[in-house]
Specification:
The protein has 538 residues and is an alpha/beta fold. Helices cover 20% and strands 27% of the residues. A hairpin with a 6-residue loop joins strand 23 and strand 24. It starts with 11 loop residues before the first helix and ends with a strand. Bound molecules: uridine-5'-diphosphate.
Length: 538
């Protein structure tokens, strides 16, 4: 993997001429800066100005052409974190004629993906904000293949997890600092700028307290396609016939410690009659950790970024997240949200230390490790007395940091009790059944026939055929929901039926028009679409 850009692939004079004559061309997807990814030809970057440059010429294209709205607040988010004001992308404009007076451009021959990493030293952020979004942005555009090159513009150094970023393409990713060594004016032949947010599930609390994103669009299937790719790149084979079942305790060794870890490991082993092993980011390589987690029946860990490795658990496994004293598990749910995504097929259990004697606090540490000595006495006392951290915004709330960096002596009976409420026998792995999660199509050939008895009674016989896809599926339970609405009314009568026809007589009036809505439901929860409404006159 070379850091040099191979200029051999490029006919320099042709490239320069194309840039001068055609200028920059940009076409974007997305309606707002928060959902936009742009494709460029001949986008340039001045390493002296640290600005991207758009050259206007005869053939330039700029879509969307926003005018000054391009600065309100930006063209797009360069990281996958929504609307963060340190992560905006924009460019400055110049006439292509200005190139005559500028440094000689250095052309980047590789197709480039240009983006910001959000927090490359934190494993949760690495996976959630960077790796998954990069992987699926690359899936969205076919020329972003393994020969594409990643450019990270946030300005950080490689960071402790750089090896993971390297797995996403065959070319060495380049950092903002390194661009200076390549030239004063870089021109990307073909590039994509920005990241898809379609896989993110959590918002970190910049504008409202942290929590799951409002409209989650990713399911376990896409997460597992990504982890399958990562495991192939890490040379980890999925062991189909796992010989022995075991529990993994993921421990932290610097802070937020489990103080009685040996006792915890012994208790888990005894209770579930399973081998129980402990891993940490300090003592194991990342691929060893993934190899172990990808075959584990249960993962037990303190709340913290290391829990994002739940991504790699096999279906049917259980995640047990431990929370220090005064931290309400319901208020910090990045890992609960991940493990309970539809199709992840994991069980999630939260345990919280509710015993003040079992917590060890560090009021005298620096503020960013949870110290509170810099606060005034009254505030320190309030924090010490409080039994729950109130909801707060990211990222420097001292009461949150104080409680988040406590060490905990885990109360074993209380933890086992909480796990046993969910895991009845041995924590097991279950085999995946695809047909269990497919939705019905519309019911077909719906018909109604009315009959009137006298002046006050009427009947409505309704029938329909099964959805077209049902004949190819094995479905445990097929039901039909029918809504009968009198035309002009905004209420309706709902019915749940097992057969493909029914005669309705309750509340059916003669000489009235009814709207009949029918849909199929698989296994109680898989609701299909309504068929076209039936108009029935009695
Ligand atoms: N970390 C670790 N061991 C420790 C403490 C932290 O490996 O004892 C890792 C952690 O997994 C994360 C990074 O260091 O990737 C930053 O940890 P921090 O406590 O700041 O964040 P959190 O885990 O609360 O998200």
């Amino acid at each position: 993997q070379s850091q040099e850009l191979s200029q051999a692939q490029i006919d320099y004079h042709a490239a320069l001429q194309a840039l001068v004559e055609d200028g920059t061309r940009m076409v974007c997807t997305g309606r707002m800066h928060t959902d936009r990814v742009c494709r460029f030809e001949s986008l340039c970057y001045s390493t002296e100005a640290e600005e991207f440059v758009y050259f206007h010429s005869n053939s330039s294209v700029m879509l969307p052409n926003l005018g000054s709205r391009r600065f309100q607040p930006a063209l797009l988010d360069l990281s996958s974190v929504e609307d963060h004001n340190t992560q905006y992308f924009n460019f400055v404009e110049l006439p292509a004629a200005a190139l005559k007076f500028m440094p000689k451009p250095v052309f980047v021959p590789d197709v480039a993906l240009i983006a910001n990493r959000f927090n490359p030293d934190n494993l949760m952020h690495v996976f959630h904000d960077d790796l998954l979004p990069i992987y699926y942005t690359m899936q969205q555009f076919s020329d972003l293949d393994m020969e594409a090159r990643l450019f990270f513009m946030e300005g950080w150094s490689e960071g402790v997890h750089f090896d993971l970023y390297k797995l996403l393409s065959n070319k060495q990713p380049l950092l903002r600092e390194q661009l200076k060594t390549l030239g004063r004016l870089l021109c990307f032949t073909k590039s994509y700028v920005g990241l898809s947010k379609i896989t993110t599930w959590y918002q970190y609390g910049f504008v409202q307290p942290q929590g799951p994103k409002a409209n989650i669009l990713v399911s376990g299937n896409e997460i597992r396609q990504f982890t399958k790719f990562m495991m192939q790149k890490l040379n980890i084979s999925l062991e189909e016939s796992s010989s022995e079942e075991y529990i993994v305790v993921f421990s932290r060794t610097i802070n937020r410690l489990i103080l009685n870890e040996a006792e915890l490991i012994l208790a888990l082993a005894q209770e579930f009659q399973m081998k129980t092993i402990s891993v940490s980011l300090e003592e194991h390589s990342f691929s060893d950790i993934v190899r172990l987690i990808s075959n584990a029946s249960m993962l037990v860990s303190m709340h913290g970024a290391q829990l994002v490795t739940s991504l790699f658990l096999p279906r049917g496994a259980t995640v047990v997240e431990l929370f220090p004293y005064a931290i309400n598990p319901e208020h910090y749910t990045p890992y609960k949200t991940l493990t309970t995504l539809p199709g992840m097929d994991l069980q999630y259990i939260a345990w919280q230390n509710t015993n003040r004697e079992d917590t060890v606090t560090y009021p005298d540490r620096p503020w960013d490790q949870g110290g509170i000595a810099h606060l005034d006495k009254a505030e320190q006392e309030r924090i010490m007395k409080n039994t729950e951290v109130p909801r707060h915004l990211c990222c420097r709330n001292p009461e949150w940091l104080f409680r988040a960096y406590q060490d905990t002596k885990v109360n074993i009976p209380s933890l086992i009790h909480v796990i046993r409420q969910t895991v009845k026998s041995k924590p097991g792995l279950k085999k995946h059944k695809l047909s269990g999660s497919l939705y019905p199509g519309k019911v077909r050939d719906a018909k109604c026939q009315a009959s009137v008895q006298g002046t006050s009674e009427a009947k409505l016989a309704v029938s329909w055929q099964i959805p077209w896809n049902l004949k190819y599926l094995k479905v445990r339970e097929v039901k039909y929901e029918v809504w009968i609405q009198e035309q002009g009314e905004n209420t309706y009568m709902p019915y749940m039926l097992s057969h493909q026809n029914h005669t309705f007589s309750e509340n059916i009036k003669p000489f009235t028009i009814y709207l009949v809505w029918i849909r199929c439901i698989f296994n109680k929860s898989l609701l299909g679409p309504f068929a076209d409404v039936l108009l029935c006159s009695t």
